[in-house]
Sequence to fold (330 residues):
Amino acid sequence: MLSRKWNYGIVVLFILFTCLLLQFLLSTLHIRELVNPKSRPLDGNPPPRVVLIAQEIDNPFWRTIEQGAREASERYRMNFEYNGPFRINPVEQIRLLEKAIASKADALLVQGINDPQYRMLIDKATVQGIPVITVDADEPGSRRLSYIGTDNLNAGKTMGELIVKATGAKGSIGVLIANEEAYSQQLRLTGFRSVINRYPELSIVDVRSSNISRLQAAQQAEEILVQYPQVGYMVGFSALDGMGILEAAGRIRPQGLNIFAFDDLAETKEAIRKCRMVSTIVQQPYEMGYGAISLLHDYFQGKKPTPQYFTEANILTNSKAGSETGGSCP
Fold:
């Protein structure tokens, strides 16, 4: 009798143990699926881990690049990570690149900063078999796989041509750039100067940095307008510069200042529609991010990309934005 009860007890314990084991296995599979539902490609290989290092992590422009890259990563079943400094900081970008290489990322998307140490790190990654694509700004002389983004030198020239047309090749210009260390800004300014310098009666009276801050853009623009009352045209080469200039103009020069901006923030487009700005050059950050991941996908499939892919940069004017005057502004 005692032996029979013992046998029943063993059977019950075995059933309970089996149920618990099955429940544990099912829970493990469920958690794995929640963490990475698309982490098992059809070929059975682990998905590549791609790291995007932004110039500034919460900048709207870079968040749009992130969105494009993330959606392309989902399409091509890649694990995607996004990182960057909280404020523009080339030293921090270098540190994050070192960290990404040390973590054995499968591919890297980075902004070029025109720095020798940065180029060495890109070359180091390449030697280790980690493809690197530069986004928004190139890193000349490095062994990066490809560059995708705006032709920044040409964008600067386009801005110069807009100014020449608006001024009749005569007048004084104030300029804001995001940061003197940002390579994309240097290229835009170089392209801009190459056009303006062809006209003796056009002059750039001052170039100042906004440090990707609307507040600082307004402060720098205000100082330019006070110091150089003859300035009739102001150019901003980063997304927040245009609105900063507009704020300064509201305090110092409510009438008579022609503002040329960069990128298509909602406020910028609204200011153009209301004829408070003349025009803006619109980049395609989403296409940069999506295209960079697409280039990596092709590379992993054995297709070598061309060295440069220029995304479009379009001009948004008063008439295209639908100005309140019903056409071009006076």
About this structure: The first helix runs from residue 2 to 35.
